[in-house]
Design brief:
About 20% of the residues lie in helices and about 35% in strands. The chain is α+β, with helices and mostly antiparallel strands. The chain has one domain: Immunoglobulin-like. A hairpin with a 6-residue loop joins β1 and β2. The longest helix is centred in the N-terminal third of the chain and has 18 residues. It starts with a helix and ends in a 5-residue tail after the last helix. The N terminus is likely disordered.
């Protein structure tokens, strides 16, 4: 009987631990401007990082970066895709192409180990974007990224608790 009680206690603890949010709020102060930048950030089991933050003109941006122990690099000519729960996937390649055409649109930035992309212009009066609403209400997001050496990989982040830390309040 004692073993059963211990087993049930352990099972409840493990279940509670996995249900906890791994999201946290990071606060940075720019040393040149003294502006405060807050971001909701999580690290997944693969060691990759996902951050949501308010950028220039109050737009909301996402930073997806590969883990420090990963030897992978992101392909420069094929942007990642992401999918929240069972919703339609969002292909970031059109944002990449619009940014590269030099039309004054800054929607996407790439480096070999990370990408940064806009998900909402920040104008409350015009409503929130589908991407932002999905990330704030979803359970998980899957990123599919193309490797610079060819092929692709996928990684998943839990969104549980993300809206609590999101710089845009629901």
């Amino acid at each position: 009987m004692m073993r059963l009680a211990l087993l049930l206690t352990f099972a409840c603890f493990v279940n509670h631990a996995f249900a906890q949010s791994d999201w946290r709020m990071l606060t940075e102060i720019d040393s040149m401007t003294d502006k405060i930048k807050r971001s909701a950030t999580t690290v997944n089991a693969d060691g990759h990082t996902l951050s949501v933050y308010r950028g220039p003109a109050d737009a909301t941006w996402v930073l997806f970066s590969l883990g420090k122990t990963s030897f992978d690099t992101l392909a420069p000519r094929r942007a990642p895709m992401f999918r929240v729960d069972g919703n339609e996937p969002h292909d970031l390649d059109s944002d990449r192409q619009l940014t590269e055409r030099g039309l004054g649109l800054k929607l996407y930035a790439w480096e070999p180990r990370w990408i940064n992309f806009s998900i909402w212009h920040g104008k409350e009066a015009e409503g929130r974007s589908v991407k932002l609403r999905e990330l704030m209400t979803g359970q998980k997001v899957i990123f599919r990224y193309t490797l610079s050496t060819g092929g692709y990989k996928e990684t998943t982040f839990s969104l549980a608790g993300a809206s609590h830390y999101c710089p845009v309040k629901s």
